[in-house]
Amino acid sequence: QVQLVESGGGLVQPGGSLRLSCAASGEVFAIYVMAWYRQAPGKQREMVARITSHGTTNVEESVKGRFTVSRGNAQNTVYLQMNSLKPEDTAVYSCRQVECSGLEYWGLGTQVTVSS
After folding, report:
1. Of the four listed, 49, 56, 58, 105, which is most buried by Cβ atoms within 10 Å?
2. Cβ-contact 93, 105 below 8 angstroms
3. Do 24 and 94 form a contact (C-beta atoms < 8 A)?
4. Are 107 and 26 in contact (CB under 8 A)?
């Protein structure tokens, strides 16, 4: 059983930065992609950024140039560096891991609130 645990969320003023972490534990096999999603109140969940096992990254258009996704050396950790945060970035940010087998896992999420 794989568990994903996110951390690093919190309250930050507009223009500030946060770095989210997602660590996978348990029987982690070949990972195909790890991704960050967010869901704001009353809105659908959307993908924010993803990184494949080969290091290819994609970020959603609204966060391009502000958010960066990366992996740790252990390969089972993924980070989301968020700069120049805006109030509209307020959401619960969750981590998703998809293995080459097709199995996927989700973390419980971490709250990010951008407010003055």
Report:
1. 49
2. no
3. no
4. no
pLDDT digits (tens, 9 = 90+) for 51-98: 998 999 999 999 999 999 999 877 688 999 999 999 999 999 999 999
Contacts 24+ apart (CB under 8 A), 27-31: 27/1, 27/2, 28/2, 28/76, 28/97, 28/99, 29/99, 29/100, 29/101, 30/99, 30/100, 30/101, 31/75, 31/76, 31/97, 31/98, 31/99, 31/100
Let me know if 91 is exposed, middle or buried by CB neighbors in 10 A (0-12, 13-18, 19+): buried
How far is the first Cα of the chain from the last one, in angstroms, to the nearest whole number?
Answer: 40
Q: Which two tokens stand for residue 75?
A: 């390969």
The DSSP result for 35-76, as a single string, is EEEEE-TTS--EEEEEEETT--EEE-GGGTTTEEEEE-TTSS
Asked whether the beta carbons of 18 and 82 are under 8 A apart, the reply is yes
